[in-house]
Fold this sequence. Notes:
Low-confidence stretches: none
Distance between the termini: 70 Å
Number of helices: 5
Number of strands: 7
Oligomer: single chain
Amino acid sequence: MVATCALLINLYRRINEQARFTRELEIAHAKQAQASRAKTEFLSSMSHELRTPMNSIIGFSQLLLNNRRQPLPERQAGQVEQILKSGQHLLTLINDILDLARIEAGRLVFSIEPVEIASVIEESVASVSALAEVRGIDIRLPAVPGRHRVLADFTRTKQVLINFLSNAIKYNRDGGRVELGWAPVEDGGLRVEVRDTGIGIPADRIGELFQPFNRIGAEHSGVEGAGVGLALTKQLVEQMSGRAGVESVQGEGSCFWFELPEA
């Protein structure tokens, strides 16, 4: 009888401990969710407050550069171009951080429909062609484009590809090469690849590449960036039921790729 009572008391104590532990987990989860919502709301509010003056800076910089009646002297024009370039870079960073926060909060809306990948590539290459020209980098496309289509959001797919292309140019060598390609994969998807002849990535650090705000040493390279683009890119692809990854050899170059369901 005594042993039975002791067993019941011990069982009752364990049930109470389990219940307390469950309540603590629920409270911790609720606090985490609240903190995530607060972070998203803060970033959304701050992004709006930052984008308004940034748009003014960019707009007036463009007006100054495009004023044909009173063109700026060469030295001043160069200074205004730097203001414009820095403003556009900061605005891109603000938008990327906001998108990342929206994905984490489940608030980023996607319009999934059949998308012709050749159109995405054409528009993306046009967006980065000026950057490639400055570095003397040759962007090569497949000889036969084909008419493959994927189930995706056109704008977000273009955002992903532009990010990969921009990195392939920025971290390349002057006069280097960027090659695009795409092909069906076994699971019924389509893989798009961006290969470069750049500096490559150390094998022991590839796993860190898609972590937010981690530039794996590139912050000392003089190349602009904050380590947000690749983290956002991977999240965007996964939200469209796809996968993203990279293969790289240090000193030889990298191949960034993403796969999306074929339409």
